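dumping the sequnces here before i forget
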Amino acid sequence: MSGQSVVIQLNDIRRVYKVGTEQIHALDGVSLEIYENEYVAVMGHSGSGKSTLMNLLGCLDRASGGIYELDGEDTTQMSNSQLAKVRNEKIGFVFQSFELLPRFSALKNVELPLIYSRQTIWNRKELAGKALERVGLGERMTHRPNQLSGGEKQRVAVARALINNPSILLADEPTGNLDSKTSEEILALFRRLHEEGQTIIMVTHEADVSCHAKRIIRMRDGKVISDVPTEQDAVWEHRNTGAGR
Ligand code: ADP
Ligand code: MG
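..and the predicted 3d for all of it:
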């Protein structure tokens, strides 16, 4: 990884949710670095803090403590509008539930993040069309979400996530709503994006999915409990959960 620049630097990140009188430490001192063009899977049981981490990385939420630098800029000091700008320009988000607008065509859905840019409407359409071609959906531009299969919907969501050339692609259980064959298609797309230089961070609880990444971060109770290259994670899992589980 030498020579690659740091995209994400987290230093002792905490996120406390207050529910009534109770405090939930959803992230409890997370420190890590992610370099350009890494392909990282985040794993852990339900409630371990994976989505909280992704929301923070995606600037959808703020830490209760600690420092988060994105492309060398300290996001913790930013105003809400600065943070929204960073989110729009530097983050691509893909969700388990696709989150497409049902009344809009694939093309219009992909165009949405460009609404805040200074592009003309024709440039926006052209960029959105190219993004759809990049994910193999050049023939589906005028289809609405309910006229697309699950895998196609997720590819539209990936095209939308990539439209602003984000520094990081964040995917929270991107194959969680897909059958195994379609999951493989989406993972093949991620692999290609990785090969093209995209930095990817993906949450999953499935070993079949995480093995596509190059590095696996495991979380428990808001803490990172393991962070190793994918080949070594199998050893970790064997040692910590026992064989034949
Ligand atoms: P995961 O994605 O790994 O399942 P989450 O990040 O969603 O875990 O949740 C981590 C912990 O924080 C859990 O205990 C969860 O109940 C709690 N939590 C998540 N979001 C909220 C919220 N908005 N308000 C209160 N507690 C929350
Ligand atoms: Mg989650």
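Residues 36-59+80-244 form a domain with the Rossmann fold fold (CATH 3.40.50.300).
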